[in-house]
Amino acid sequence: MDYYIVIPIHNEEAFLKSTLDSIQQQTLPPKKVILVNDHSTDRTEFIIDAYCAKSILFKKLNTTSSTQHLPGSKVINAFHKGLKLLDDNFEFIVKLDADVILPSNYFEIISNHFRTDEKLGIAGGFIYEQNNAGEWALNHPMDKDHVRGAIKAYSRACFKTIGGLKNAMGWDTIDELLAKYYGFKLRTDGTLKVKHLRPTGRSYNKKAKKLQGKAMYTMRYGFVITCIASLKMALKNKSILSFWNNMAGYLNAAKNKTPYLVNQAQGKFIRNLRWTNIKRKIKA
């Protein structure tokens, strides 16, 4: 199957080589890889140029944006710019981070999943991060059917139907909710172990960590579900502050009448889906 990869990149000189090497070693190589150099101030562009010079597989795009590393807006804005350089002649498309190492058969396996299930919309492996003992341990804070934003692959049909990726925090949850709304399936493959070289959220600033509640508002969770989700997050993080930050973000978004990212019908579907999952976990 033909596929493209778009990689938003900002100051990734420490990890980028490992990511690009793992792409070059794929048993099923991509048609093209767009490397979006998003306002990097380190040696990132030098590394990109070296790989572009060695292989026609890679194509560079320089872009300028804020130096703040906010989840969602910066990354997806860069992704969209890279996407404009590609045509629609692909079976699936990949949004990849610049700080991961993929197993060599990663996209061959992903391709097999898409080929054997025409209703499969989003697929990916699992993220592993090094713990204090230096061991690579599974890092998956959400449900096991969730594909992490660092390694998301979309079938062409699903990507087009959901309208691409939303330029906002929570984009990697909204995409899956909309995929389900339109009847697509999600699949995570536990045999595909991806090494994530930078712990999740390490580069985000304090402002970014207060946007989760706003994202819940824009997804039309409603107040009660947002309370439950925020409490669950606080217990997992062992931080009551994260609960209050989430709720403050939600209430501020409501006060400011922040535009929703989904319509009323999609919002109703999302709330029903969330309630179903909550009840299932309570019974379990």
Account of the protein in words:
The chain has 284 residues and is of the alpha/beta class. It has two domains: 3-196, Spore Coat Polysaccharide Biosynthesis Protein SpsA, Chain A (Alpha-Beta Complex); 211-283, no CATH class. 41% of the residues lie in helices and 20% in strands. It contains ten helices and nine strands. It has helices at 16-24, 44-54, 73-83, 106-116, 156-161, 171-181, 212-218, 223-237, 240-255, 264-283; strands at residues 3-9, 32-38, 58-63, 92-96, 100-101, 120-130, 136-138, 151-155, 185-196. Strands 1, 2, 3, 4, 5, 6, 7, 8 and 9 form a nine-stranded mixed beta sheet that branches. Helix 7 (212-218) packs across helix 9. The longest helix has 20 residues, at 264-283. The model has no long low-confidence stretch (mean pLDDT 91).
